[in-house]
Amino acid sequence: MFIAPPVLTGGLGLVTGTPQHAQVQECVDQLFQQCVRPMGSLIQIAGHNLARQRDKFGHILQDLAALQEEADKVDAYLHTISLQTDSGRSHLACLGTWVLLHTLRTMIQYLFSGFELSLYSIYEYHYIFWYLYEFLYGWLISAYNRADSFLTEHQSMTEYLKTKGKAPGATNKKGGQSGNGKNKKKKERSATARPYAKEIAYCQAVQSMCGGYYKAMVAMDLEGKIRRPRTEFDDERVRYEHRFAALGQVSTPPLVPYVQFKEMTKLEFNATDENDKASHASNLYATACRHFHHAATILTALTGQSNDENVLSLIRVCKTNCVVMRLLAGGHRREGASAPQFDFTVHPHLPIVKVT
């Protein structure tokens, strides 16, 4: 169970058969009936080709937006009920967090699919990675953290109630538990202390990688390595709004307008003369290197838990990019270098940066 909401774990303290219990059950049933279409579609689109999947993601976001509003209403209603009982547990944003998680993952998949389909030009990469780094992965990590905290609280309360209620298996005898039994129980508690620790760590690693790509793209743009279209045929605002238009169907998280994007990134592009640009670019490359190194450190720790091929591929990407960023920060290929190349053969979404 993703977040163990009180309404599904008996935490509301309602008596079965009462009118209030029937109302709550009907309310929750209606919500899950509304979940059938979008959640079923998320499974069905796996059978489509990439182009069709991307198109479907846009439609699913519409359904998820409506589902998010309904889940928030149900959470508010159930929270009011919880305040009237002795459960002692809040119900705010429980079901809503579950829907939000699927919404965020769909939005991220939508943006990443653009790389697989080669829809983005290189001069667009910076705001795609910026959006993933600054907003979507930040929101996703927050959703996992909330679920992690809520689930941990639920497990602690369950253990407390078992002890208080003298559940089967408990013992009140002096010395009734051996040292090995106590150690085993401590290990079990530590293993379940952070239910989503692995998911959170993975998201933090990918977020850090996206930050590294963003910093690297800005530095390359300052050095003139990124070939841009002629100004009379280009409008970055139009391109930005077109790329993120599908995300505007969702109210949570809200779409970041182009004006806000420019306001938040103006310091990154702020360099007056050539010397200032070179120094600023070197600092950005160094920052990108730290981002990739940080991601590699997190991912390497995850390999101790499982040998996931996806994680191993990302570690390879991080280590290679870290070396490239370190060289670029030191001034390698600063003058007369050709446009950078992005190799997606190791990972379909997060490429290896090559500068020749």
Automatic annotation (TrEMBL):
Sequence segments annotated as region (Disordered): 163-191
Keyword Electron transport carried by entry: no
GO molecular function annotations of the record: transferase activity
Domain of life assignment: Eukaryota
Keywords: Transferase
InterPro entries to which the protein is assigned, alphabetical: Naa35_N, TPR_NAA35
GO cellular component: NatC complex
Domain NAA35-like TPR repeats per the UniProt entry, residue ranges: 20-353
Record keyword Transferase present: yes
Protein name per its UniProtKB record: Protein MAK10 homolog
